[in-house]
Design goal:
Helices cover 38% and strands 23% of the residues.
Length: 278
């Protein structure tokens, strides 16, 4: 099968932030995954990466795809976009993806309620898969946290502990919030009403039913998360440790392929992995 026929039968994916660490990892994984190929690389206006080949940047060789700052030009030639950037960019790109009727996979964290509403509005016209974490392991962890929380009473205190590299700008991490939300759903409570995101000074005794978050930052840690259920004389800990950004990239590519040909809607990785009912 020649290359033109192969590409007609495969899913063209745009890599947003193609020059960054995550963008380069996404390019590597897409290049290695059957059923898809890198159709475009996007960077912000003025980026030093503009005009460079996405494959060369990612270390997989020249792919004949130059980095651009024009999302519309890239989206009309693609079937999907992989986006691990910042909330403002993801919201803007969601609207453009909706216009182009392509799959938008969003791994961006730190979105506000207003951002989420705008992304939800865009999903009326586009297939959007959004998750605080794209890895299989973390989404299984979330499903287990939901199940354990539903099985244990409030005599078990819930704490979510996370650690990331020194460059991460949002806290708690999107993954920590994903896990906290899963635990809250298991207990059938509203996370916002139960979340405790910081403790300092004389805080008093811990309130029953609270879901606590502890944030650690340092070094080059890709991501470590624990959900702790602490009871009297016993403790249950569910732990996930990410050792490479490839796990997030592989999940994102899987989500894009899953979304191809589906109708508009806002989906999660639990939908992609079919683990929502665990």
């Amino acid at each position: 099968m020649d290359g033109s026929v192969r590409r007609m039968s495969e899913m063209g994916l745009v890599i947003v932030g193609a020059g960054g660490r995550m963008g380069r990892t996404l390019t590597q994984v897409v290049h290695e995954t059957p059923g898809c190929f890198v159709s475009g690389g996007l960077e912000a206006e003025g980026s030093v990466f503009l005009g460079q080949d996405v494959g060369t940047l990612a270390g997989v060789g020249d792919l004949g795809v130059a980095v651009s700052d024009d999302p519309l030009e890239l989206f009309v030639k693609a079937q999907g976009v992989l986006d691990f950037t910042v909330p403002a960019a993801s919201v803007s790109l969601a609207g453009l993806a909706a216009q182009a009727r392509i799959v938008h996979v969003i791994g961006t964290t730190g979105c506000s309620a207003e951002d989420d509403e705008k992304i939800k509005a865009a999903s009326r016209h586009a297939t959007i898969v959004k998750s605080g974490n794209m890895s299989l392991g973390v989404n299984l962890l979330a499903a287990l946290a939901r199940k354990v929380a539903a099985s244990l009473g409030e005599e078990f205190d819930i704490e979510v502990v996370e650690m990331h590299h020194r460059h991460k700008v949002d806290a708690p991490s999107g993954t920590a919030l994903l896990l906290g939300q899963a635990a809250a759903e298991g207990r059938n409570v509203d996370l916002e009403g139960k979340a405790v995101r910081s403790r300092d000074g004389r805080t008093g005794a811990r309130r029953s039913g609270d879901i606590g978050f502890a944030t650690l930052r340092g070094g080059s840690v890709v991501g470590e998360h624990s959900v702790i259920f602490a009871g009297e004389a016993e403790r249950i800990e569910l732990v996930h440790k990410a050792e490479s950004r490839e796990i997030f990239a592989r999940g994102a590519v899987r989500a894009a392929l899953w979304g191809q040909g589906r109708g508009p809607g806002l989906f999660s990785m639990a939908d992609v992995l079919d683990i929502a009912d665990i």
